[in-house]
């Protein structure tokens, strides 16, 4: 069965520090990977997408993909209280995504 | 770009009634639409996937006669919860994909359904 696994947390990080979120996936055929942020009571919003091995940076966010290890991560630099949310990892192909259960991130002022 | 709307945002109904939720892609053609359900403090649960003009594919355990999905055009999909009961109270979220944004799903704002 295809799975995406994330630590449910909560992950507590001091304001200004780097938050590191991790995700592993089982389907080697997965070609695209996404990190979504979901605030309580709201729908998910896309933070980062990554399709090839290596790092992809966008502002304070860096996504990392290692297909050999079937591992995806998201780094948030200079964490802010507004980054407190649940982060969902998803991976897949052929217009189907497999979702992780999400990691709750808490940024402490 | 890639905006998805959902209507209504919130609905309260009596047990036994049917509720229709609309999902629209406003600025792109949604070749595939997805319907999710999320209970409080739980993860997203995919209910069904629909392609324009085709019957929806339901996930295991989701009653297709209870949750009717119609993807009649490239910009509109509807979910009808028939004979709703209190246990159907949940946050229903649609998402959409096009052929350009490789596997990326664009989410609507969600509909909170409360069945009394």
A few lines on this structure:
The complex is a heterodimer of chains A (109) and B (116). Chain A has strands at residues 4-5, 11-14, 19-25, 32-38, 45-50, 54-58, 61-66, 71-76, 85-93, 96-99, 103-108.
- Helices and strands of chain B, in N-to-C order? EEEEEEEEEEE
Spatial gap, N to C terminus of chain B:
37 Å
Question: pLDDT below 50 for ≥5 consecutive residues: which ranges of chain B?
Answer: none
Unreliable stretches of chain A:
none
Envelope shape of chain B: globular
Counted beta strands of chain A: 11
Largest sheet of chain B: 7 strands, mixed
**CA-atom Rg of chain A in angstroms:** 13 Å
Q: What would you call the structural class of chain A? A: mainly beta
Mean pLDDT of chain B: 92
Computed over alpha carbons, the radius of gyration of chain B is 13 Å
Number of distinct helices of chain B: 0
Helix content of chain A: under 10%
Strand percentage of chain B, roughly? Answer: over 45%
Major sheet of chain A: 6 strands, mixed
Strand content of chain A: over 45%
Instruction: Please estimate the helix content of chain B.
Output: under 10%
What features would you describe in this structure?
- The complex is a heterodimer of chains A (109) and B (116).
- By secondary structure, chain A is an all-beta fold.
- Chain A has strands at residues 4-5, 11-14, 19-25, 32-38, 45-50, 54-58, 61-66, 71-76, 85-93, 96-99, 103-108.
- With 116 residues, chain B is an all-beta fold.
- The model of chain B has no long low-confidence stretch (mean pLDDT 92).
- At the A-B interface, β4, β5, β9 and β10 of A face β9 and β10 of B.
């Amino acid at each position: 069965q295809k799975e995406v696994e994330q630590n449910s947390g909560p992950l507590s990080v001091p304001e200004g520090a780097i938050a590191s979120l991790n995700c592993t996936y089982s389907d080697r055929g997965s070609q695209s990977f996404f990190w979504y942020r979901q605030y309580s009571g709201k729908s998910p919003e896309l933070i980062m997408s990554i399709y090839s091995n290596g790092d992809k940076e966008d502002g304070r966010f860096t996504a990392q993909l290692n297909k050999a290890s079937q591992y995806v991560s998201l780094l948030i630099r200079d964490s802010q209280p507004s980054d407190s949310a649940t982060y969902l990892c998803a991976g897949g192909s052929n217009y189907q995504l497999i979702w992780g259960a999400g990691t709750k991130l808490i940024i402490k002022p | 770009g890639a905006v998805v709307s959902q209507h209504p945002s919130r609905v309260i109904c009596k047990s036994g009634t049917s509720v229709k939720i609309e999902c629209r892609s406003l600025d792109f053609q949604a070749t595939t639409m997805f319907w999710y359900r999320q209970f409080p403090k739980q993860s997203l649960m995919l209910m069904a996937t629909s392609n324009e003009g085709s019957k929806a594919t339901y996930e295991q355990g989701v009653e297709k006669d209870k949750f009717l999905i119609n993807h009649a055009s490239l910009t509109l999909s509807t979910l009808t919860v028939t004979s709703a009961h209190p246990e159907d109270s949940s946050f229903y979220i649609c998402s959409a994909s096009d052929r350009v944004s490789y596997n990326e799903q664009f989410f609507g704002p969600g509909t909170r359904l409360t069945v009394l």
